Automatic annotation (TrEMBL):
Native source organism of the sequence: Psychroflexus salis
Residue ranges of every copy of the K Homology domain listed in the record: 233-306, 307-385
Described function: Participates in both transcription termination and antitermination.
Keywords: Cytoplasm, RNA-binding, Transcription, Transcription antitermination, Transcription regulation, Transcription termination
Name of protein: Transcription termination/antitermination protein NusA
Taxonomic lineage from the root: Bacteria, Pseudomonadati, Bacteroidota, Flavobacteriia, Flavobacteriales
Gene: nusA
Amino acid sequence: MENIDLINSFSEFKDDKFIDRVTLMSILEEVFRAALKRKYGEDDNFDIIINPDKGDLEIWRNRIVVNDGEVEDSNQEISLTEARQIEPDFEVGEDVSEEVKLAQLGRRAILSLRQNLIAKIHEHDNTNIFKQFKDLEGEIYTAEVHHVRHKVVILVDDDGNELIIPKEHQIPRDFYRKGDSVRGVIHSVELRGNKPSIILSRTSPVFLEKLFEQEIPEVFDGLINVKGCVRVPGEKAKVAVDTYDDRIDPVGACVGMRGSRIHGIVRELGNENIDVINFTNNIHLYITRALSPAKIVSLKLNEDKKTAEVSLKPEEVSKAIGRGGHNIRLACQLTGYEIEVIRDGLAEEDVELTEFTDEIDTWIINEFKKIGLDTARSILEQDIQDLVRRTDLEEETIVEVIRILKEEFED
């Protein structure tokens, strides 16, 4: 393979990967020097001249002329007789420059050189992709579904870069088809081997924050700040917003007339229920707002232990806890306080569920507590089929619990 043929064989990489001329020359010289070092032991006395645009490559070896029989290092020295075969007027002590053809390196060395060049160009390309996407961490990115697997969705962007959405970063109700355009936030970028692994997330709270920036001009402009954002992906989210401009209603601006502004965000997140509340440094008021839509009767704080005891009317308890316990769990995450809900004015004839631990397993009691039912009468007032839908309990288990509770009052 001639020098020019070898250079031309890499023009496709230069064109496809948009490697600039200087970088390509650097990669070529690095690989050629490595090949020379393997062949001759060192490369310090070689000059490599490359013009990748024209496909020109010249390699020159520089040696010193010594008397015949005095050559100790054939890479650094050349005998007088051999030097005069190149040019007849050479004398001892002079420098001789001789062009080295690729054929002199041997066929195997040339094949290895080609493989190394391909690897170096790909490595350079992957490094650039890694740096590009590392700078985009935390930003929204759009790509197209290329392949759907059981635990991961593979996406490809307009430049052919591959991104993935693992199962844990997919909203449960998301459905992906090849060719679909998908938005998410660049969650993490790592180099695995020499290949960048780009994780796109649709479950990260950062994704919701960035959607607020994209969809709500006042947030984008900095007039409204997102102070806190927590999610149960696909189910419920709470976002605390604030503004330095007293003329702006931050919640109203984010929600829009009849929910017009937030509707697009809700739809993007698979109809995730989003509560937008006003942020405040008054922790009493902040917890009260975080437990919305429930209305609090009273609240006791322990700021040292970061706990809050909240009293509510019986009919408000289920609202505070929310379906599956999502509301109270998100309120705890948003405020940073462990919130305990107390039923206010518990009727004397009612009995706390914890009194039945001898007859009802604790995990069953906890299932009822998740949906805001923590007393005997609060369960007896419910429809059995409704309890089956709202809990992870079998109908037979619920029927048995109701039987035990009824016996308590009959006794």
